[in-house]
């Protein structure tokens, strides 16, 4: 037994390693017909080797030949499974017919191996497709296939059932166990190579387990429970009936012997011959003994352990005389369990008629083998058909509904659910479609209301920005524009007089876009305006504004700000930059150039941040251009940025035109550069020209 287990384990490991090697080859191949046939041939050859290299076990050959076509079909392709099954099955029949290799079971074994390939191919094509069979499913498939193998042996040998039962009894357990474990090992190695143990290896939480898997588990549990109940009940009924039939037979035999004994008392030898004939016909034995326990007649007297009954047997038989048949272990029959019945005869003689328990239940055992195998096959077929039907009727339709719902959730509200294979799914489809239709109406209404509110917000935001660029002065010119990426934006600009000689210029960019950015923009603009007082420096203003913005900033928004305060009498501008873009300065002799000032941290990030300050001296005719990052970071369709170099070149081409034309020219150049690409960020610009006392 130990040698058989070791050799069968080795055969299973070879199949598992072969599956691993071929799986690597399969993943790298083109999976064409040639590859599928090649894998089928390899597994078919393995099935042939299993036939000729099986384990000798009680004058029979135990093997795992069916593993070849099962693994080929289940883990590779239907073509591979059918090819391996035909090679292994046909060769098994030929070997049994012409080379006397298991000739008694050649038809059943050859048919089973062929059908193993077709069965695995059907599972792959109709059930698993691109999926892998789970460990539990593989174990059951391998075991059920060998159950069919055993049943085929019984079915094809109706004329010699005793031999067929003997073969099934001796080979069923090892072949079923090792085939199931072997196929489960192949499933494990393919899952391991793919890095996926979820199918049958990891127990998924209830809320994420597919409905079909949960149904299959319940169906399997109920099926196994029903089979066990049916098996237990049937076995109990059969054993009880066999016991009762045997008891009646023993009573009949004992009565017949007593009659023969009375009629042929003077010729006991004839009586013995008649009795021995009767018990042989009923697979029973008998003994006749005197008051001293000496055996004077009986079946196989020369083969019994003793010629005189032991005290234990005499006490047992004497106590049970004239009672109903009983189970005992008489020493005279080597202590084997027997159904016994005894009666006293005349002249001090007694008779014991008995039947060995193995013979008593032999018919039940044989019938239960066939019944069990047929029931397992029946339950397996029903389980398979119900699982496929549920997956087809319910699972497929649910996946269709979920797929459509996913597209609807993604925003494709014109999608409709159209699953009409049953009344329930038709009602579900109609309910979903009505819900989506109502949702579309609500969304359209909400979008219209939001559109109106956004237009109003845009008007309010636009009104908050200065739009009057004509000042009754000739010492400067200023122009600004803001083009939000959405209807409302997070950029803003501002310019106002601190006093009659000091002009404040502000440009800022709030993090984020849309309504939140617009609200934070209004808060930032108001704070700057309120905290700018005569005599305050840009650094002081930004430090105070930062304190205000940090308070209650639960959304952790921030704003980058550039601020400049110019003394229009002298051209001296004091500036501070809180994380904003570098300004551009144009002087007559050099044109526009990037002025890399010293940055401070953006406002709203952290309290008590010191702000750096610097100054710029303007001469009459010098120009200033400040902007938000939406200008240099504007993208085209290839995700290329507009950039500061392109911006500088464009500004220098417009250095002699009014600021309104400069800003319009830059905006037009950005549009040409971006092409059909959507505007990604707000675009805000301020153009300033210092004229001093010379005027225009």
Q: Could you please describe the fold and organization of this structure?
A:
With 696 residues, the protein is α+β, with helices and mostly antiparallel strands. It folds into 4 domains: 2-202, Arp2/3 complex 21 kDa subunit ARPC3 (Orthogonal Bundle); 240-363, Beta-Lactamase (2-Layer Sandwich); 413-462; 465-694, Phosphatase 2c, domain 1 (4-Layer Sandwich), CATH 3.60.40. Helix content is 55%, strand content 15%. It contains 17 helices and 18 strands. The protein has helices at 2-28, 33-52, 67-75, 78-98, 106-128, 135-155, 161-194, 211-263, 268-281, 311-320, 357-360, 362-409, 423-464, 514-531, 538-550, 644-653, 659-674, and strands at residues 55-57, 60-62, 285-289, 295-298, 326-328, 338-344, 350-356, 476-483, 491-499, 502-510, 559-567, 572-578, 584-587, 591-594, 599-600, 614-617, 623-627, 683-690. The strands form 4 sheets. Strands 9, 10, 11, 12, 15 and 16 form a 6-stranded mixed beta sheet that branches. The longest helix is centred in the middle third of the chain and has 53 residues, at 211-263.
Task: Write the topology of this structure.
Blueprint: H1 2-28, H2 33-52, E1 55-57, E2 60-62, H3 67-75, H4 78-98, H5 106-128, H6 135-155, H7 161-194, H8 211-263, H9 268-281, E3 285-289, E4 295-298, H10 311-320, E5 326-328, E6 338-344, E7 350-356, H11 357-360, H12 362-409, H13 423-464, E8 476-483, E9 491-499, E10 502-510, H14 514-531, H15 538-550, E11 559-567, E12 572-578, E13 584-587, E14 591-594, E15 599-600, E16 614-617, E17 623-627, H16 644-653, H17 659-674, E18 683-690
Parallel strand pairs: 12-15
Antiparallel strand pairs: 1-2, 3-4, 3-7, 5-6, 6-7, 8-18, 9-10, 10-11, 11-12, 12-16, 13-14, 13-17, 17-18
Helix pairs in contact: 1-2, 1-3, 1-7, 2-3, 2-4, 3-4, 3-5, 3-7, 4-5, 5-6, 6-7, 6-12, 8-9, 8-12, 14-15
């Amino acid at each position: 037994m130990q040698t058989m287990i070791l050799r069968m384990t080795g055969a299973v490991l070879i199949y598992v390693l072969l599956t691993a090697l071929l799986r690597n080859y399969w993943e790298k191949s083109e999976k064409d017909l040639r590859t599928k046939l090649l894998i089928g041939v390899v597994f078919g050859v393995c099935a042939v080797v299993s036939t000729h290299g099986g384990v000798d076990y009680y004058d029979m050959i135990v093997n795992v030949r069916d593993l070849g076509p099962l693994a080929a079909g289940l883990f590779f392709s239907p073509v591979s499974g059918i090819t391996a099954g035909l090679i292994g099955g046909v060769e098994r029949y030929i070997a049994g017919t012409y080379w006397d290799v298991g000739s008694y079971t050649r038809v059943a074994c050859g048919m089973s191996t062929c059908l193993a390939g077709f069965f695995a191919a059907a599972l792959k094509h109709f059930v698993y497709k691109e999926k892998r069979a789970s460990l539990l499913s593989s174990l059951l498939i391998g075991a059920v296939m060998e159950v069919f193998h055993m049943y085929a042996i019984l079915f094809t040998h109706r004329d010699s059932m005793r031999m067929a039962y003997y073969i099934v009894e001796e080979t069923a357990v090892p072949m079923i166990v090792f085939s199931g474990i072997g196929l489960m090992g192949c499933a494990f190695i393919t899952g391991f190579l793919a890095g996926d143990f979820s199918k049958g290896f990891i127990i998924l939480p209830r809320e994420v387990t597919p409905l079909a898997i949960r149904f299959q588990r319940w169906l399997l549990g109920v099926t196994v429970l029903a089979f066990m109940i049916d098996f237990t009940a049937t076995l109990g009924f059969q054993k009880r009936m066999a016991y009762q039939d045997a008891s009646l037979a023993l009573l009949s035999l004992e009565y017949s012997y007593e009659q023969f004994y009375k009629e042929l008392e003077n010729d006991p030898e004839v009586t013995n011959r008649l009795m021995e004939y009767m018990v042989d016909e009923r697979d029973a034995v008998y003994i006749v003994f005197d008051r001293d326990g000496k055996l004077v007649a009986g079946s196989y007297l020369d083969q019994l352990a003793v010629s005189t009954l032991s005290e234990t047997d005499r006490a047992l038989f004497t106590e049970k005389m004239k009672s109903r048949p009983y189970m005992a272990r008489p020493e005279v029959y080597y202590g084997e369990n027997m159904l016994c019945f005894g009666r006293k005869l005349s002249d001090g003689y007694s008779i014991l008629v008995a039947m060995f328990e193995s013979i008593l239940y032999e018919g039940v055992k044989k019938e239960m083998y066939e019944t069990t195998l047929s029931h397992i096959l029946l339950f397996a077929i029903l389980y398979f058909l119900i699982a496929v039907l549920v997956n087809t009727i319910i699972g497929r339709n649910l996946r269709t509904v979920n797929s459509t719902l996913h597209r609807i959730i993604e925003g494709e509200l014109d999608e409709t659910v159209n699953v009409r294979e049953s009344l329930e799914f038709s009602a579900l489809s109609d309910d979903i479609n009505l819900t989506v239709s109502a949702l579309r109406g609500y969304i359209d209404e909400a979008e219209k209301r939001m559109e109106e509110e956004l237009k109003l917000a845009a008007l309010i935001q636009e009104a908050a920005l200065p739009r009057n660029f004509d000042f009754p002065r000739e010492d400067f010119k200023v122009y600004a524009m803001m083009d939000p990426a959405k209807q409302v934006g997070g950029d803003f600009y501002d310019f106002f007089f601190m006093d009659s000689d000091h002009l404040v210029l502000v440009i800022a960019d709030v993090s984020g876009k849309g309504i939140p950015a617009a609200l934070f923009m209004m808060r930032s603009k108001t704070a700057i305006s309120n905290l700018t007082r005569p005599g305050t420096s840009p650094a002081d203003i930004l430090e105070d504004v930062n304190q205000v913005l940090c308070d209650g900033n639960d959304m952790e928004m921030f704003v980058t700000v550039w601020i400049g305060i110019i003394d229009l009498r002298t051209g001296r501008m004091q500036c501070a930059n809180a994380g904003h873009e570098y300004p551009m300065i144009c002087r007559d002799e050099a044109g526009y150039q990037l002025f890399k000032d010293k940055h401070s941290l953006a406002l709203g990030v952290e309290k008590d941040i010191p702000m750096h300050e610097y100054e710029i001296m303007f001469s009459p005719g010098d120009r200033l251009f400040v902007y938000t990052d939406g200008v240099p970071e504007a993208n085209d369709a290839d995700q290329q940025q507009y950039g500061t170099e392109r911006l500088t070149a464009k500004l220098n081409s417009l250095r002699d035109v009014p600021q309104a034309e400069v800003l319009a020219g830059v905006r037009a150049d950005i549009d040409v550069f971006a092409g059909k690409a959507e505007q990604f960020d707000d675009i805000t610009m301020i153009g300033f020209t210092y004229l001093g006392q010379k005027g225009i």
